[in-house]
Design brief:
The complex is a heterodimer of chains A (418) and B (369).
Chain A lengths: L1 H18 L17 H12 L6 E3 L3 E4 L2 E5 L5 E3 L6 E4 L5 E8 L4 E9 L4 E6 L2 E11 L11 E6 L2 E6 L2 E3 L4 E6 L2 E6 L2 E3 L3 E6 L2 E6 L2 E3 L3 E6 L9 E6 L2 E3 L20 E6 L2 E6 L2 E3 L4 E6 L21 E6 L2 E3 L8 H11 L8 E3 L15 E4 L5 E3 L10 E3 L25
Parallel strand pairs in A: 1-4, 2-5, 3-6, 4-7, 5-7, 6-8, 7-9, 8-10, 9-11, 9-12, 10-13, 11-14, 12-15, 13-16, 14-17, 15-18, 16-19, 17-20, 18-21, 19-22, 20-23, 21-24, 22-25, 23-26, 24-27, 25-28, 26-29, 28-30
Antiparallel strand pairs in A: 30-31
Chain B lengths: L1 H14 L22 E4 L2 E4 L4 E3 L11 E7 L6 E2 L13 E9 L19 E3 L3 E12 L2 E9 L6 E3 L4 E5 L8 E5 L5 H5 L15 H4 L12 H7 L3 E2 L19 H13 L55 H7 L17 H12 L12
Parallel strand pairs in B: 5-13
Antiparallel strand pairs in B: 1-2, 2-7, 3-4, 4-6, 6-8, 8-9, 9-10, 11-12
Helix pairs in contact in B: 5-7
Classes of the chains: A mainly beta (418), B alpha+beta (369).
């Protein structure tokens, strides 16, 4: 375990040296001293009795909880002294599906860490106005199927900023924004998760200036069926999405279990996604994958709402810097495809498309995929014909309108020590 | 009218007779005894005058604990009938739910899922181990949930907002386990069935939950009519909404019993407005769409809770259904419900499994358009 941490630390250090990124959590640094039982219970009491406008300052220390924490009061700020100094540990957790569950809006959390929760680390459900900054969610034992599913998990939220966060070791997605509207995820790091950063069934999201590395898949833009909102309009730009080659350790049955190890950016069933100005490299299945719900293996007649749109449409890839990757695809089918088509020493092209399109598209449906990213090529895997005739596809030289930037309203967080 | 009610409450607070009930409109007393709805007296737990014990057709599973439920309403006030949600109780209402285990001659706790056993309207404390009493209190500004935890002697219960734990070993039910007492906020995990309004409210005493004969007041067709006859329920229609099946009543169809069990144990979160609406899986009594009930439905955010299974319900195959896996699991990151139990309910899981086994159909995966 220690070895893993050191190895991870060394990798991070190397990576940092190479990219000159802001200094993240460093595992080598000393851990804070354990907080007293009294201080731990005081924090539990503060959360339960919080009043709107409260600023709950959590001094440095390692706080250990055996049950989940929850906050239902709106307008509360939780503030630690740093993501390596104020640590909420759930290593000994016996009850509760999260580390911290928040159901009060106008919520700001910053400068602390949530470690080793049995389920999700931080879940924020059904609220407006959320800022999560400089928060680390980590499973300290490294990748493990029994780790909690999501690190930082706002769901059915609106007007959400995730800034400078760190997510490590989630058995599903490190940073996962689900069924939300108006989202910015920036300056964050996701590593050693199954999915680094996932935007799912969400509308208007900007994902930029993040680092997603050593996950099974770096950045995912997905739509799932049977949910009240279909996602569209996400911009993924100026991120570094490298070396996402950690063996997929998700529980079977989860949608991310279908992510081939070695995936950079994946779009599944989502519409209007703009992927540009990223550094994407050395993801051994493919640097970018565009796919439909048919490719997940979860499409059933009875279990998927008829209104669900399973196709990826309006995916716009331009101006990215690709490097390496595609040389060791993470599924037997894709590995066979690579070997047959490109040889033992060959590689899949940077962009892999499963080839599914709506056979009767309603008027106004955009093309599936437009690529302006020479010299990157697109491989159409010919999914609709059971991958019989995969070929380099030249039909993607179309253009799509640029998506507008997401504008968040952060005025609610002004004043009151925020 | 509002100020009248407020005045009435003030008067109540000021003039409560000794041994009677005190409605605390503002403060949260540290001691359960200060409410007066339950009192320990001569080795018995007694109900205050006017405190009405009730039972539900199918209850929530809580580690085989027995539950004593009471409703107290201010003098002369009535609840109003509602066909689907909990009855509409007046401001000033105090609902209590006490969790306890009967004990045998050696003092060992016994599993007891059935209704509370009262003798002369009281619980004999020499034969029970009291764990906790949860109050739902209806104040002017809304309902408030307060968790009280009993001391080891069962003589006094103190307000413990952060919840707590109790070690329990049930005779004939395996190893000791840690019974977890939810904190005050977690009460909302079940008692806020509408995630948009965020209003705390009672969830048990619905027409379908109360529509069974009272084990405490024989001679009435059901508890709704009993309340109405006692003048404590207004607006009861001639034909009230049908009662849920009693989940153990094998005379009722399997589906009705399984759905009643899922309604009570899952439906407070898993409904189109509840906290688990984000999963697209709705298990409340009002849902009839098979896909929303989970038939061949892939999970949304189950994480390791899938148990490596692909669909919530695979007709004919409980052992392939995520729903059953999560009912069986006791891992905090996998189990359902997420809180409120530390052990799994073998009998409840068997009922739901039997229902799934009897279902027709199959989940055929389509891998092309």
């Amino acid at each position: 375990m220690m070895q893993h941490r050191l190895a991870a630390g060394a990798t991070i250090a190397l990576f940092l040296a190479a990219c000159n990124q802001q200094k993240p959590a460093s595992p080598q640094e000393g851990r804070p001293s354990p907080a007293s039982q009294q201080a731990t219970e005081k924090l539990m009491e503060q959360l339960v009795t919080a009043k709107p406008g409260d600023v709950i300052a959590i001094p440095a220390g390692l706080y250990s909880f055996d049950r989940s924490l929850s906050l239902a009061t709106p307008g509360v700020t939780l503030r630690g002294e740093g993501m390596d100094k104020t640590i909420l540990s759930f290593k000994g957790q016996i009850a509760g599906a999260e580390g911290l569950l928040v159901t009060g809006g106008n919520f700001l959390i910053e400068d602390l860490a949530i470690e080793d929760s049995k389920g999700d680390a931080l879940k924020v459900n059904g609220v407006e106005n959320v800022i999560i900054r400089r928060v680390r969610a980590e499973w300290t034992n490294g990748p493990d199927t029994k780790n909690g599913a999501y690190g930082i998990y706002p769901v059915q939220t609106r007007n959400v900023l995730i800034d400078g966060a760190v997510a490590i070791g989630a058995s599903d997605a490190g940073i996962y924004v689900g069924q939300s509207v108006d989202i910015v995820v920036r300056n964050s790091r996701a590593e050693y998760n199954v999915a680094g950063i996932e935007i799912e069934n969400s509308v208007n999201a900007d994902v930029h200036d993040n680092v997603a590395t050593n996950n099974s898949g770096g950045i995912l833009i997905f739509n799932m069926p049977n949910l009240p909102q279909a996602g569209h309009s996400t911009r993924v730009f100026h991120n570094r999405v490298n070396h996402n080659n950690t063996d997929n350790f998700a529980a079977k049955g989860t949608v991310v279990a279908t992510v081939p190890t070695g995936s950079g950016v994946i779009v599944n069933s989502n519409d209007l996604v703009e992927i540009f100005d990223n550094d994407i490299g050395n993801n051994r299945t493919a640097n970018v994958i565009v796919s439909s719900y048919f490719s997940t293996g979860y499409m059933t007649k009875e279990g998927v709402a008829k209104t669900f749109d399973p196709w990826a449409q309006g995916i716009h890839v331009h101006g990215n810097r690709f490097q390496g990757g595609g040389d060791k695809p993470g599924t037997t089918e894709l590995l066979a495809l690579k070997t047959l088509k490109f040889g033992l020493d060959g590689r899949l092209p940077d962009i892999l498309w499963d080839g599914f399109v709506n056979p009767s598209p309603p008027p106004g449906t955009p093309p599936a995929l437009c690529v302006d990213n020479a010299p990157a090529e697109v491989l159409n895997a010919d999914g609709p014909n059971r991958f019989r005739n995969p070929k380099i596809s030249a039909i993607h030289g179309c253009t799509l309108p640029r998506l507008p930037a997401v504008t968040l309203d952060l005025s609610w967080a002004e004043g009151a020590g925020r | 009218m509002r100020w009248l009610a407020a005045l009435a409450l003030l008067l109540l607070a000021a003039c409560s007779p000794p041994g009677g009930v005190t409605f605390h409109a503002e403060d949260d007393p540290e001691d359960l005894a200060d409410w007066g709805v339950l009192r320990v007296e001569g080795g018995k737990l007694r109900l205050a005058d006017g405190s009405l014990p009730y039972e539900l057709a199918t209850p929530l599973f809580t580690d085989h604990a027995s539950k004593l439920r009471t409703i107290w309403m201010p003098d002369g006030q009535q609840a109003r009938y509602h066909p689907a949600q909990a009855l509409d109780f007046p401001v000033g209402t105090i609902i209590s739910k006490s969790f306890y285990y009967p004990t045998d001659a050696e003092g060992r706790a016994l599993p007891a899922d059935g209704p509370a056993r009262l003798e002369d309207g009281a619980l004999d404390l020499t034969r029970v181990r009291l764990i906790e009493t949860r109050l739902l209190v209806h104040r002017e500004q809304g309902w408030v949930a307060l968790p009280y935890v009993w001391n080891a002697e069962g003589t006094r219960a103190k307000l413990q907002r952060i919840g707590g734990i109790a070690k329990v070993r049930l005779a004939g039910r395996g190893d000791e386990f840690t019974y977890v007492i939810p904190n005050a906020t977690q009460c909302g995990a079940c008692h806020v069935p509408d995630a948009a309004s965020r209003k705390l409210q009672p969830i048990g005493p619905t027409a379908r939950g109360l529509g069974i004969p009272s084990p405490f007041a024989p001679g009435h067709p059901d508890q709704l009519r009993w309340l109405a006859q006692a003048g404590r329920l207004a607006g009861l229609p001639e034909t009230p909404a049908p009662a849920s099946a009693v989940w153990t009543d094998t005379a009722r169809p399997l589906e009705a019993r399984a759905r009643a069990y899922l309604d009570v144990n899952c439906g407070h979160c898993h409904n189109p407005a509840g906290p688990a609406r984000t999963s697209g899986l709705h298990l409340d009594a009002a849902t009839s769409d098979r896909r929303e009930l989970g038939f061949c439905k892939p999970p949304v955010a189950a994480g390791q809770g899938t148990g490596d299974r692909t669909f919530a319900i695979v007709p004919g195959h409980p052992d392939q259904s995520i729903l059953v896996y999560r009912m069986e699991s006791v891992a905090p990151g996998e189990m359902m419900p997420e809180i409120g139990r530390s052990t799994s309910h073998a009998e409840g899981t068997a009922l739901v499994s039997a229902w799934i086994r009897a279902l027709e159909g199959a989940c055929e995966v389509k891998s092309t358009n």
